[in-house]
Specification:
The structure is a homodimer. Chain A is α+β, with helices and mostly antiparallel strands. Chain A has two domains: about 30 residues, no CATH class; about 120 residues, Nucleoside Triphosphate Pyrophosphohydrolase (Alpha-Beta Complex), CATH 3.90.79.10. Chain A contains two helices and ten strands; from the N terminus they run E-E-E-E-E-E-E-H-E-E-E-H. The radius of gyration of chain A is 18 Å and the shape is elongated. The interface between A and B is large, with 41 and 41 residues.
Chain lengths: ~180, ~180
Amino acid sequence: MTRESPPAPDAGAFSRRVPAGDERERLVCDACGFVVYENPKVVVGAVCAQEDRILLCRRAIPPRRGFWTIPAGYLELNETTGQGAARETREEARAEIEIETLLAVYNVPRISQVQVIYAARLLSTTVSPGPESLAVDLVPWERIPWDEIAFPSVHWALRHYREYASGGPFATRANPPGEWGDY
Amino acid sequence: MTRESPPAPDAGAFSRRVPAGDERERLVCDACGFVVYENPKVVVGAVCAQEDRILLCRRAIPPRRGFWTIPAGYLELNETTGQGAARETREEARAEIEIETLLAVYNVPRISQVQVIYAARLLSTTVSPGPESLAVDLVPWERIPWDEIAFPSVHWALRHYREYASGGPFATRANPPGEWGDY
């Protein structure tokens, strides 16, 4: 993750009201009527493997500082989801990847996130922590620190990657039944 | 589509500059330093079928007014992608759907869009135009008006739906090679 969502800019000259022709409350400038459309954000990430080891990053920033995650963060303007996943891997683990397949699309509606997660092959032979990581590691499945994983969707992605890597036909995954990423 | 993206709110008291600790230009309030993070938006939609006929909507709003599309529009806050696709179908064609599978995730980086498109079954026996549609129709494959389709990604979605509906194992699709949705 690059950062948290900013607080809604409603402390100043904006009010929440329903603009003409709309059906929902929006942030509207009290002075000029400019409407700020707030929409969910896209998080992009990748489960990156080198043979049977998976890249994990120990978060140096909140939320969940000190817990382990996969490289992931907010998609930037004019970027594709694959480019974003590769950029996050570069920023957080100083590593290059090759995207293999679309692993999953997860929804976390409570925090208005859509997560687009790829399965990828690590091209770099070494990895090292970027500024948002305390440490990075290449971990075999048996050594994944399940109790120290940062977010529910990281659990899902690792399990879904395991299914993908076991071979055979693979269909892009969604949230496990009944799970929405709430703590 | 519900609406166009708003113009960037940079006409007033905001400047584009790189905040401390960031690597990109952001919209920053000249008065208080509040940072507006602009990110890509998620478009959700569905190819909705009733037996061998596909639901198309003739757009009543720009862009591409008068051209045909599938129900699609911007995902709203606290909504899942599946819920959003169902809502857009309700708004644009007064129809209920059951989601069958994740058909495709398309990127249109020029306009910072990620499109999450489902294959769905129409539950309603009748359809009728909502305020954003001039007309709606249930069209067999042979009668799809290919020259009057609103957007490249609608072409892709219809073709990918055809592949899905032909049976056999199906993997969620992405952009056709080399195509990014630019006109």
